[in-house]
Write a structure and sequence with these properties.
With 286 residues, this protein is of the alpha/beta class. It has two domains: 29-205, Alpha/beta knot (3-Layer(aba) Sandwich), CATH 3.40.1280; 213-280, Helicase, Ruva Protein, domain 3. Helix content is 48%, strand content 10%. It has eleven helices and seven strands. The protein has a seven-stranded parallel beta sheet. 28% of the residues are buried.
Length: 286
């Protein structure tokens, strides 16, 4: 029975962790200028990839999706597209369908073409990190800037003519032995790199919500180590006549942990139980 109880408790804790992770994703801080960025899919073959791409950009804080001459003109109502979009059906429904790439880039000031290699007569070739940083610089320089990241069809990518409509080419570094990414995977990687550059290196305050615990003061830490030493001697783990460097090593170990008041209380409770079982120390304090 105790084992089954522990299993149930473990399942509950796992569920809490999953829930907390979902909440964390929802509460992440993204830039307010996401409307300056659009993602353009050129002639996608599979509606499911369009839905997955919608989900990919929404999870990274973006919402503007353009679809150029898709094979399935009714992709917005396609069951696969809707299914793969998950919580991004709104992005899928609000996506803009155009007949050609020129139309999709009509109001764009700077466009990045995603390609796995340089082109002889194409625009400058930059890394994805450089492209994301360039986008950030453009967004910071102008409030009305329009930037596009353009992705080619699943089978053959962008044509030379389509690439020449863009001002720069960017590539996702990949293993040469397996360098083919699914369209929606490529969109996800680019969207992540882009929002990472736009947000900078700051960590969202919600992600650090458990860092607000009161740190343990010097006196509390000193009393804990006295208690710990007593517990170690009590259970035979520490020989008081030949202590060697055990306490010094333990001090180094715990000092790296940044102990809080709650941590000290918990650890001292463990020390008390080691020195004297709870049922034997009723009414006493050790």
């Amino acid at each position: 029975m105790p084992l089954e109880k522990n299993r149930r408790q473990s399942r509950r804790e796992s569920a809490k962790i999953s829930l907390n992770f979902s909440v964390l994703v929802r509460k992440m801080s993204f830039i307010e200028r996401e409307q300056s960025i659009r993602f353009v899919l050129v002639e996608p073959s599979h509606p499911g990839n369009i839905g997955s791409a919608a989900r990919a950009i929404k999870t990274m804080g973006f919402s503007r999706l353009y679809v150029v001459n898709p094979q399935n003109l009714g992709y917005k109502l396609d069951s696969q597209a809707i299914g793969f979009s998950t919580h991004a059906v709104d992005v899928l429904e609000s996506s803009v369908m155009t007949q050609n790439l020129s139309e999709a880039l009509e109001t764009v000031d700077f466009a990045f073409a995603l390609s796995g290699y340089d082109h002889e007569f194409g625009p400058p070739f930059v890394s994805l990190v450089e492209a994301a940083n360039k986008a950030r610089a453009l967004v910071e320089a102008r409030e009305d800037i329009e930037i596009a990241f353009v992705f080619g069809t699943e089978r053959s990518g962008l044509t030379n003519e389509q690439i020449q409509l863009c001002q720069a080419c960017a590539a996702i570094p990949a293993n040469p032995e397996c360098d083919s990414l699914n369209l929606s995977q490529a969109v996800q990687v680019v969207a992540y790199q882009l929002q990472n550059a736009l947000r900078g290196d700051t960590v969202d305050p919600y992600a650090l919500r458990f860092e607000e615990e009161t740190p343990a003061g010097p006196q509390a830490v000193e009393l804990f180590f006295e208690h710990l030493q007593k517990a170690l001697v009590s259970c035979g783990a520490l020989n008081p006549d030949q202590p060697k460097f055990m306490m010094q090593r333990l001090y180094r170990l715990f000092s790296r942990a940044g102990l809080s008041v709650n941590d000290i209380d918990m650890l001292r409770g463990i020390c008390a139980a080691v020195i004297q079982p709870k049922k034997e120390r009723k009414g006493t304090k050790c």
